[in-house]
Amino acid sequence: VDYKRRLNAARRQLDPHRIDALLITHLPNVRYLCGFTGSSGILALDDQRSAFFTDGRYTQQARDEVRGAHVRIDSKALKAATEWLSRRRSLRRIGIESAHVTVAEQNAIRKLVPTGCKLAAMPPLVEQLRIIKDSEEIARIRSACHLGVKLFDSVLRVIRAGVEESDIAAKLEYEAHRSGAEQMAFSSIIAGGKRSALPHGRASHALIPRRGFVVCDFGVILAGYCSDMTRTLHVGVPARRLRDGYAAVRDAQQAAVEAVRPGVSVGEVDEAARKLLAKRKLARFFSHSTGHGVGLEIHEVPRIAAGQKERLRPGMVITIEPGIYLPGKWGVRIEDTVLVTQTSCEILTPCPKELITV
Length: 358
Ligand code: ZN
Ligand code: ZN
Fold this sequence. Notes:
With about 350 residues, the chain is of the alpha+beta class. The protein has helices at about 5-10, 25-35, 60-65, 75-90, 105-110, 125-130, 135-160, 165-180, 240-260, 265-280, and strands spanning about 20-25, 40-45, 50-55, 70-75, 95, 120, 185, 190, 210-220, 220, 225, 230-235, 290-295, 300-305, 315-320, 325, 330-335, 335-340, 345. The radius of gyration is 23 Å and the shape is elongated.
């Protein structure tokens, strides 16, 4: 991984934002820029230098992992970082990651910087760099997604009426770990029967009913990168209107996938799914946005939502996941993770979308 290139890209953000230095505290951003995977550390950079600060618990790990930045071990990492930044020259403005710094942390930083130096709340600068994945990142996301597809087979083998949702999730997660996943990307969703109407129905102790949909939404983290996919299957023979509901979501998902290509705005992709559901008078049951970016984190920019202007570019990895939810009755969601290519997109989670009944 070319951390020097990434750090230089971050550095080029200093001038346009009129800051002399930047303190990176959001750990996925730290990892992206210098490789550190531990749970505590700060990256500081100015127009010429970069240094990574962490405490004694991570001495070995930081030396092994961090590239492109000097490693400094200090029990007061924040203090060490601000002192290091002000040593070379007097600073007027230091950028902080406004979406990730708490009020308490901001107050602490303010006390540490020299008098006359201002803190400037930055928009998500590093997140904007992370929006385009390089070939190494794409390879890792593809592997994570392919593992996800493989794991769905093990879900299919255990789903049947009378089994606890959490037993199915446990089986899925056990297989994930055995196959090399570091951890799950989020709490697995296995939501059967009426619970399928909960867009975020985490696996519970409820039993899979004798008839009804089961929404399965899960992801793994493999080599640091997340996968994300959802399939909905049906236990027993589905009633006509449920079959129609499923077909509507499948067609909406297909329409949105087909809308994905460079230059198209993410709002247009959302519209493609919504328009199809509106035709079948189901749009009011589609209560969330169509998707999100995926990478080191499970939810990244861009947000694939109504009215969003961001345009798709090759190298973006996003999910396409329309769903409909009839409260107290049933729900369906189908989700793929896709890579924006030069001309259209590659589905990274190739797995059948015909309605499966078990
Ligand atoms: Zn998902
Ligand atoms: Zn998702």
